[in-house]
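tool=predict chain=A
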Amino acid sequence: MSKQSKAKRDKRKKQQPRRPFARLGGAQPVQNHAVLKNEEGVVVAAIGLQGSEWLLAIGGQTMGNADNPVPMLAMLKHLANVQEKEGRKVELEYSAALQQMIDDLAADEGKTAEEYLAALVSEFENQQDEEDAEGAGEGLGEAAEAEAPEAGEDKPQA
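tool=predict ok
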């Protein structure tokens, strides 16, 4: 071995492009199957498939995962309806594979895909209405408590 062989080898190593570390169990890429975009074309929320797990991302952050993406799609559809009621224009697009899942689930229940998805969306709307009603009822209860003195409190004396 010559005295210069190490220097040549080091020089050759520096010139080669860097290789990423091979990681065991590395994350698989996420395939988008449903995308909710605002009027500027910015993605607001998405549903993706990573391996065998469905992920829900809102605002660029993963918010949850599930085995079945259809309830997540219904949630996105509800979100789109709420945005449209507030005057914002949004667009919900989903893949043919996700449409096929909805078609299969709807056929099992004897409905069309639109009816099936509308029924799921209405569940979210009903749940939102119930939460709004509870919130209004709690607000009234707190106001009444603030006006009425507690049973153990004495009235101020003059």
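Residues 31 and 49 are 5 Å apart (CA to CA). The chain is about 45% helix and 20% strand.
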